[in-house]
Amino acid sequence: MAIHPDIQARAQAQIDDIDGRERMPNFDDFDKLPYVQALIKERLRWRVVVPFGVPHALSEDDIYEGYFIPKGTDCVVNVWGLNHDQNVYGPDAESFRPERHLDEQPSCANETKDEGHCAFGFGRRVCVGRHVALNTCILWCFNITPAEDESGKPMLIDANQMLDDGLTIRPLPTNRYKFTPRFVEMEEVVKNELELNGFSYT
Asked: What are the transmembrane regions (predicted)?
């Protein structure tokens, strides 16, 4: 969001139209937020956190494109490659463009439970945290911008340079961000929402 302020603003405008500023978004709102849905799908496609997914073992012998794969074989999937396949996402697959999920469903939609990306895995055992990943509250609460250096100049963010932890990747620690509350009442609304749901606010 820090490097795509126009996309951030469009998503926030849609959230404001549905939720206003008196309450936080919830899961019941999600179907009314098509652009926000597209943004989240694109974010998960564009920079997947687990680029080679979680290995799966074959439960029975299989033949794939002429190759025999015996039962018990661990298979590792190039999720990054699938999510950047130009045959599926077009020649601009390296670009961050939420509209691609609005224009038409990518050809992988059926294989990805209509997610439009492979970030949550495959088969019956997809990521258990997928619904948390789809939460939109941060955009409702904050404007996300690059942090500023000592002179007040926005710091450069390089989305193409990532820290590889082996199983996962993440942004470099030199990529710094600033979260600014979007409106004065935000903290009070968050506090009330937490307390209504049985959480303490500190």
From this structure: none
The pLDDT tens digits for 48-104 are 888 888 888 899 999 999 999 999 999 888 999 999 999 888 899 999 999 988 876
Domains, the chain, with CATH or none? 5-196 (1.10.630.10)
The predicted-structure confidence for 114-160, as pLDDT tens digits, reads as follows 677 877 777 666 665 665 655 668 899 999 999 999 999 999 998 88
Q: Which residues are annotated as a binding site for heme?
A: 127
Annotated binding site: 127
Q: In the structure encoding, which two tokens stand for residue 63, read together?
A: 């033949």
Please count the CA atoms within 13 angstroms of the CA of 8 that sit on its side-chain side.
17
| Residues ≥6 apart with Cβ < 8 Å to 43 | 96
pLDDT at 133: 55
Backbone angles phi, psi at 172, to 5 degrees: -65, 145
